[in-house]
Amino acid sequence: MMKVSIIVPVFNEINTLDKILEKIESANFCGLQKEIILIDDMSTDGTREHIKTLENKYKIFYHEKNQGKGAAIRTGMFHMTGDIMVIQDADLEYDPVDYEDLIKLIIDDKADVVYGSRLTGAKPSRSFMFTHLLGNKLLTLTTNILYGATLTDMETCYKAFRTSILKDIEIKSDRFDFEPEITAKILKKKARLYELPISYYGREYTEGKKITWKDGIHAIIALLKFRFMD
């Protein structure tokens, strides 16, 4: 039976962690066996202590200092054993039920990698903050120009991978620049990459959103670096 590894990087999400885990548990994931991997990136709001009570249910790993989302995903990738890997943020911006269609393309051997796009208009999407939408479009356009792609949402969290395609990819980015790095390396491998529409229930900064304009600058640097290096 095929297995899906669901990597959940966690940093200060005490108010949403249980809710997102419940959604992951109830989502079908095409009937695949689930391997849920939590990585606590040195939370300080009580999340770390709460996660310790879940050690009998999930694979859990702890960072001894805050390193960033990319580092947490790298830790999860090192320990995963599934045939398919997906990424799930610990907030409630994305709904795990949307992964069904993404991973089906991989199961049916039509794709090696599938991205969930928030910008197609085909599913509910909370209005973006204007600066975030502008930044997202700029980063996606830069990706398409540098790598000859036609993506609509490079920065999406929802990415599903056939794990065999990741075997010889080394992730070096520690923070949100994970997204452009993995995209650059997947496109350079000429993997079969598809996009499908997903829902998006975005947060404001007052609700705990963490990404900032500085991460956009790091993303541009990553896109340029990995286009001509590595």
What does this structure look like?
With 230 residues, the chain is of the alpha/beta class. It has a single domain (3-228), classed as Spore Coat Polysaccharide Biosynthesis Protein SpsA, Chain A, CATH 3.90.550. The protein has helices at 17-26, 47-51, 69-79, 99-107, 130-147, 178-188, 213-228, and strands at 3-10, 33-40, 59-62, 84-87, 113-117, 159-162, 193-197. Strands 3-2-1-4-6-5-7 form a 7-stranded mixed sheet, sandwiched between helices. β2 (33-40), α2 and β3 (59-62) form a beta-alpha-beta unit. It is globular, with a radius of gyration of 16 Å.
What key attributes describe this structure?
230 residues; alpha/beta; Spore Coat Polysaccharide Biosynthesis Protein SpsA, Chain A; seven-stranded mixed beta sheet; 7 strands
Task: Write the SSE topology.
Blueprint: E1 3-10, H1 17-26, E2 33-40, H2 47-51, E3 59-62, H3 69-79, E4 84-87, H4 99-107, E5 113-117, H5 130-147, E6 159-162, H6 178-188, E7 193-197, H7 213-228
Parallel strand pairs: 1-2, 1-4, 2-3, 5-7
Antiparallel strand pairs: 4-6, 5-6
Helix pairs in contact: 5-7, 6-7
